[in-house]
Amino acid sequence: MKKIRYMYNTLKHMNFAHFYNRIKYEVFKRIRKRIKQINKKTYTIQFKSYHSDYNICSNENDILKANNIVKNKFCFLNIYEHQFVNNVDWKSNPFNYRLWNFNLNYFDYLQDLITAYTTKKDVMYLEKGLSLIDDWITQNIDVYDPNLWDPYVVSKRLINWILYFDFISKYTDFEINEKYLRSLHTKLQYLKENPEYYLRANHLIMDGKGLVIGGVFLEDKEAVSKGLFILRTEYEEQVMRDDFHYERTTSYHVEVLEHYVTVYLVLLRNEYIDEANEIKGKLNGMFVSLYNIIMPNGEIPLLNDSTLDYPIKANDLLESAAILFNDPKYIKYSGSTISIYNYKLFGEQGLKVFNGLKPYLGFNETNVILKDSGYYIIKDRIKEGDLYLLFDCGDCGPDYNLAHAHADSLNVILTIGNKKFLEDSGTYTYQISSERDYYRSTAAHNTVTIDEKSSSQVWKAFRVAKRAKSKMLTYSDNETFTIISAEHDGYTKVLDKDKIIHNRTVIYFKKHGFLIIDNLYGKINERHSVSLNYYSGENFKKRKQNSIIFDNSNVELETNYPLITENVNISELFSIKKQAKKVNVSKNIDKNNIFVTKVILSDESLLDYEIVDSELIRIKHGEQLYNYFVNENSMVKG
């Protein structure tokens, strides 16, 4: 019965088109047995890919990866390594992890073989790539399998094969024969007939990318036109007015932006000038939103399903923006030399632009408001370093697809310089497991959990049933303080009887500290267990019953109830756990209640407070007194 309720509360947010396309996909997946072969021979001999130059040297790790591939040894998702004894079994799933099999069939590793060849000049690497492609065609070209012929997988494989054929035909005496062209045309036709309208989101944009690049290479104008149509319409649907991607995950914002960049380069270099300029016009806003959300240490905040290395490092993508728009602010977090990623994209011309830019070394202290995403970011420069606090005041994502959402409503992230004082727990796995459930749960984030339930019902690997809706209430900024208030209704939906609103206010008294005020109010007739959690990437010591002080820092955190600390694991990279620290405040409540967290950045005597009652908190900042009215989310001098 519980599963039925979860299914109902997931599906009710889908419209007729979503249902129709999902049912169509599920039916075809079950009845389809063969793949129709397309016997076209056309392709563009003068095709110019989005890779401009391969004249690069690999490091030892790159060579090791290529040597492993030669031995049929594949490692995906950082740790999952498997070696095939004889031929590769393309349907194999040795770890019962669908994403592993997807990676096997993406063929991203062809780029590792190319890189090894350009370094070692050993044709063995190129021959291995062709051997793998030949083997895939022999085993699978006309046999349907839902993993191998998943449209997202087909799109990635099509692009990777095109890049590979393009390279070896230009740098060796290899010629693309009918077998390879038939396979490429078959994949392209399959993509034309099966774009992922049942999923949309980043998957459909990948399909559009595959259609454009495949269409340009194979001289299929219908495919190019259909791909451009998808990229246009999905940009309008998926990129919000604040220029952030609607799944509200930093990693998928990076992925979608990278897709548009590479499509732009292919169109430009193959003389689709008008279409290229149209795509370029969509890029800068997305680059600006990515630049604004980057933390002072140059890393992305791990919002929803995000990892530091997927799909590429955000800094590399910002470096692309610097070269495309000749804008030095985007290389603030770059090294002194151009990255390998961008040298491959732009070659000597890109290197010249990069070397001509003078990096901006300052810190933009202006607060950032991504209103549609719900991300409010406080920035300042203090004695400890560049301060960054992100407050998540937004919804989970697009209601019809919350595959990459976490139950993280009203989560906060705090970093100063390179130190991660309050950190998101990240994303460990996409595999259906207790760990997947945990990392998506409210308990894994810097916010409030009631009765050990998440504020949104995350379930399976990529589903959400009842989901919290957030409301932005207050944003005010002046010379002395910034105040941001929001609330969500998740606990009016997921609790058995009572209906509790979680209201959170963040007040930043500039240079001195924060107050984080959690107000739980509503229909409360029963007793509830409440947990307030904070995760930190920094070590700390317990100072008093209700406070900690961070090592090698003046920063302190104090709560209005006793706290406990423990060692925990977070995950900044797929499949890899990292030890961190956790602060937990637990209390049973049977009426409206307030939790206050004080974060001291300098002299603790400059910031103090007194909870007068459930409606009023008196705050002392230096010599100034304020009255904070809890129910009104407002503060006035007192």
TrEMBL record:
Subcellular location: Periplasm
Pfam (any one): Hepar_II_III_C
Keyword flag Lyase: yes
Domain Heparin-sulfate lyase N-terminal positions: 46-333
Keyword annotations: Lyase, Periplasm, Signal
Position of the signal peptide: none
Gene Ontology CC annotations of this record: periplasmic space
Protein name (database record): Heparinase II/III family protein
